[in-house]
Amino acid sequence: MHDPIDHVRDRLGRQDQRLTPQRETVLRVLLEHANEHLTAEEVYLEARGAAPDLGMATVYRTLDLFERLGVVHRLDAGQGVARYEFRPEGEGHYHHHLICLECGRILEFERDLLEPVERAVEKETGFLVIDHSLLLFGLCPDCRRTGPDAPSQGASPPRPDVGERDPGASPGASS
Amino acid sequence: MHDPIDHVRDRLGRQDQRLTPQRETVLRVLLEHANEHLTAEEVYLEARGAAPDLGMATVYRTLDLFERLGVVHRLDAGQGVARYEFRPEGEGHYHHHLICLECGRILEFERDLLEPVERAVEKETGFLVIDHSLLLFGLCPDCRRTGPDAPSQGASPPRPDVGERDPGASPGASS
DNA sequence: CTTCCTGCAAAGGGTTTGCACGCCT
DNA sequence: AGGCGTGCAAACCCTTTGCAGGAAG
């Protein structure tokens, strides 16, 4: 019962829903790419390897379902695409995202460190904080090394593609 | 030269661009609604009062332009719409957004408090932080008072709809 | 058989782009 | 003239929805 797949099956069963082959495929893709922040389309493409008849709509519906179950995190980095990542059982809402403005990669930062901020907010405004999203935009170690304007290296992952525009322009979202 | 409008005109002039009547109208709307996080459509509707022939495309192009000039902040709270707010000259990237899951209102929190976090990130990961976006999801003082399930008050904005679900489930975006 | 699920295709909503015309220098 | 800027409409992209057929309990 430490198996995430069984866990999801149980959660679903409890509300008369099933872990269909399609759903299991999607779940497996998410598990195989933990910490990778796939888009729905990327999940779809990966999943089609195992389930060629799978449709996009099912992927979206499944990701939605999983999100409601708390099995995945949906993360919107401010470009027009949502990204999804598997969310280990019992994980708090810790861990923030570092988005490289140069190569688009998304790194993670595990420590929370936000409690002082949340406490200050609650105390000073009366707003009850339930969850948070912290995005840090900047340069990842690699791009920092290469210099902000160097042409992209063939070195790193395919590059998750975060919208482009001229580097130097301000990062879409902001606090 | 403290007038933001002149400031923008200058900035534009420097790159052979002009502060046209349309652009000025958009700018005025943003100024009149400082701290209000309007959507492009809301800007458009407001602006049409002063410039009935204005087109949506111009609004988008202008907001884009202003964003590149650093005159406005684009903020994406995780639902499918971008929101824009005037960004006072010389303002750092401080100030965070508190998004009420009940009524959809967006409040602001002026103090930064993120420096310890950013320093920790830079030190531990080598990632160079340039800007950030902190969204706190929860209940605003009003909704908190009314109770999480009270029918919406006539008091607040139409409610921008932030994903619903049982409060307690994680809100769409997350860090 | 009833309910849950699926794929397909169409619809949706926000945002962007192509194009021809207008405006300012 | 020569750009820059604009309105309009069409195009785009991601995501959602309607619907008829299937599978599971």
From TrEMBL, chains A, B:
Record PANTHER family: FERRIC UPTAKE REGULATION PROTEIN, ZINC UPTAKE REGULATION PROTEIN
InterPro entries in alphabetical order: FUR (IPR002481), Fur_C (IPR043135), WH-like_DNA-bd_sf (IPR036388), WH_DNA-bd_sf (IPR036390)
Keywords from the UniProt entry: DNA-binding, Iron, Metal-binding, Repressor, Transcription, Transcription regulation, Zinc
Classification via CDD domains: Fur_like (cd07153)
Required co-factors: Mn(2+); Fe(2+); Zn(2+)
Binding-site list for Zn(2+): 100, 103, 140, 143
Swiss-Prot/TrEMBL GO biological process terms: negative regulation of DNA-templated transcription; regulation of secondary metabolite biosynthetic process
An MF annotation (GO) of this entry: zinc ion binding
Residues at which Fe cation binds: 115, 132
Positions of the UniProt region annotated as Disordered: 147-175
Naturally occurring in which organism (per UniProt): Limnochorda pilosa
Membership in a protein family: Belongs to the Fur family.
Name of the featured protein: Fur family transcriptional regulator
Free-text cofactor note: Binds 1 Mn(2+) or Fe(2+) ion per subunit. Binds 1 zinc ion per subunit.
